[in-house]
Amino acid sequence: MDFKGKKILLISVRFFGYEKAIVERLQERGATVDFFDDRPSNSVLQKGIIRVFRSFLVFQIQKYYRSVLKKMKHKKYDYFLLIKGEAIPLSFIKKIKRENPGMKMIAYTYDSLHEHPRFADFIPYFDKSITFDRTDALSNNMGFRPLFFLDQYRKSHSHSQPEVDVTFIGSAHTDRYFIGEKVRKACDKAGLTSFFYYYAPGKTALILKRIFDRNFKDFDLRKASFNKLSHSEISRYYQQTKAVLDINKSFQNGLTMRTFEVLASGKKLITFNEDIKNYPFYHPQNILITNREQPEIPQSFLASKTVSISEETLQMMSLDSWLNGVFFEDQRNYWFSQKNTDQNS
To answer: What percent of the chain has pLDDT over 70?
Structure first.
């Protein structure tokens, strides 16, 4: 599993700096990486149009990908990794496949096919198509590799006494605020301290969501934060709390990045995702599955001792293991095994 001397073309949406971490780690492991953003622009407006009305921007997308082709001219790659692919035209995929016959083509998605159905169109053109969603992998005979954590979360362990019982840090989307406020009220009722950080990319976009999205009808603008936190800042918040709340999308079974970051930080996780029971690292003392309609956080869960996760399991949850699983290994047997060496130890 050696990247030394390999030439990799990576096209990905930008997602909270994780694409940069992937590029940096590939380079550290000896690869030469050419990275291109999947989208012509990352403005809030254009990202929204690409997701909902991609056809409105076809001319701009085609122009952008012609410029990408010019930058790739006369280059030969060993691998092409596409992550998600919201804007990329099929014509571009077909062209680079023809022009690089020896190149291994890999597509990875961290959204469910329900939310990102376009990913299914890519499958026939790729040597490997991998999803983070266990049920999508089973239903569509795809490769399966969950997400990962970055090293700064694992290295951020602190021995100081946590100041907060429950913390949530995340983007304000779908029903997160609606559900988050339910949890906050449940914390107040149970006498638990809480900290909620709802990130929004801009005030104007949030005001429009309040008008057009029923989930944001009652959003208190005073509770929004417009500063994007770095991973180091987030990890420091995690060290000040006993448990971190993860509000997954209601229609999504795949585990969020937050799942792995929280557990790698040695903190307890509160989630609504029942599917987490099917993963090798699941332990009820570390992970509370609560109800979206009437969330409850028992004092006993926060008071119980956190069970240490084995080094083998942490390694499988790491970015390095993710890279190995995407490029080299078939890790389906491990992730489908449902063994829990930590719980049984």
So the answer is: 92
